[in-house]
């Protein structure tokens, strides 16, 4: 990291300064606190006064201080240390404008056999036919690669959902309508993913179909194996499913009959249109 190109050193004993920042294109002043730590490679500033006026150039993401440069701060996140967030000159709004849509995640949750993947595919097709870009993050598909090192224990299920939430956030930042199809049985894990997104960009769809219907379908034969004790920790049999307490959309049987996938997909499309996601 480059240091400021001036002659004065900030002694290690200084814990930080309140710096007055003057944006390059706007004359609005704001205050930030800069911590000077011994492990950082820059420690030079042009003066030792408590308040200094800096100039921020958004196009280069550099803070200028009397001819010197202070780079963005080094941070620690989880087990990752000494990392710096890098912004790009092409932002989310510009990507959305290019795609003529707004990014969001459509989180489809429910028991195995409730029709999550069926809805995800029908929705993707419906949006594709309207010229909108989507991508499906299917739970089983991701366990073939990204999450192949995770089991179905409660701890690994939580990590599975955390990873998928972070991947979904990247797709949304790219301006893509991301559709997730996973059981995601624990409410706290789904809520943690919701917290990753601005309000409104996380759209939770609960496939509220009774266990009896899901088990009767049993397209993969998993319920039969779980009942025979050959699969442990199977949601709905010997592991709980926690229904959403407040979700955006609920899909349920109508007069005891499951609605066609196309009808459910159109219901979601109508929601996206109403909320303005299908235009930028």
Description:
This protein has about 280 residues and is an alpha/beta fold. The protein contains 8 helices and 14 strands. It has helices spanning about 90-100, 115-130, 140, 155-175, 185-195, 210-215, 220-225, 260-275, and strands at about 10, 15-25, 30-35, 45, 55, 60-65, 70, 75, 80-85, 105-110, 135-140, 175-180, 200-205, 250. A hairpin with a 6-residue loop joins strand 2 and strand 3 (about 30-35). Mean pLDDT is about 80; it is low at about 1-65.
Concise synopsis of the structure shown:
With 280 residues, this protein is α/β, with parallel strands linked by helices. It is built from eight helices and 14 strands.
Search tags:
280 residues; alpha/beta; 5-stranded mixed beta sheet; 5-stranded parallel beta sheet; 14 strands
Shape: globular
Low-confidence stretches: 1-67
Structural class comes to alpha/beta
The percent range for helix content is 25-40%
| Straight-line N-to-C gap | 37 Å
Q: Please list the strands of the largest sheet in the order they lie side by side.
A: 3-2-5-6-7
Total of helices: 8
- Mean pLDDT metric: 81
> What integer value in Å does the Rg equal?
25 Å
Percentage of residues in strands: 15-25%
């Amino acid at each position: 990291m480059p240091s400021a190109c001036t002659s004065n050193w900030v002694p290690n004993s200084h814990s930080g300064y309140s710096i007055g920042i003057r944006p390059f294109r706007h004359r609005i002043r704001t205050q930030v606190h800069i911590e000077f730590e011994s492990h950082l490679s820059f420690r030079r500033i042009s003066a030792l006064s408590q308040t200094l006026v800096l100039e921020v150039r958004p196009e280069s993401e550099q803070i200028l201080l009397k001819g010197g440069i202070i780079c963005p701060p080094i941070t620690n996140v989880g087990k990752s240390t000494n990392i710096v967030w890098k912004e790009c000159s092409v932002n989310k709004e510009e990507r959305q404008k290019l795609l003529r849509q707004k990014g969001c995640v459509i989180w489809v949750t429910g028991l195995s056999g409730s029709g999550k993947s069926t809805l995800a595919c029908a929705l993707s097709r419906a949006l594709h036919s309207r010229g909108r870009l989507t991508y499906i993050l299917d739970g089983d598909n991701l366990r073939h690669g990204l999450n192949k090192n995770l089991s179905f224990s409660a701890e690994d299920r939580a990590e599975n959902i955390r990873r998928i939430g972070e991947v979904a956030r990247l797709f949304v930042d790219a301006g893509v309508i991301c559709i997730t199809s996973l059981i995601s049985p624990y409410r706290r894990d789904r809520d943690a993913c919701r917290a990753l997104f601005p309000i409104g960009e996380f759209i939770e769809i609960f496939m509220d179909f009774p266990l009896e219907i899901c088990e009767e379908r049993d397209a993969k034969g998993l319920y039969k194996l779980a009942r025979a004790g050959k699969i442990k920790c199977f949601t709905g049999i010997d592991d709980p499913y926690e229904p959403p307490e407040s979700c955006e959309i609920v899909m349920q049987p109508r007069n005891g009959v499951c609605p066609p996938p196309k009808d459910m997909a159109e219901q979601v499309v109508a929601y996206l249109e109403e909320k303005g996601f299908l235009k930028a």
